[in-house]
Amino acid sequence: MTEEVALRRYEDFLIGKKDFQLKSPSFVEKKVNIKKGTVDEIDMLRDAKLSKEKDALAIIRYAITGILGWTPDEAFYYFNEKTLKALKLEQVCKHIEFPKDLKPKVDYWWYIYKAFPAQVKYNPNERVLNLYRQMVKNEIKHFPKGVFEGQEGSDKLNLILHYFITENIPASTIEDLYDAFGNRAEAVKFLKEGKLYHAYKDKYSSPLDWLHDSLGEDANNLYYRFQQFNELFPKVEKELKAKKKLEGKKNKITSTN
Question: Is the separation of the CB atoms in 184 and 208 below 8 Å?
Answer without folding.
Answer: yes
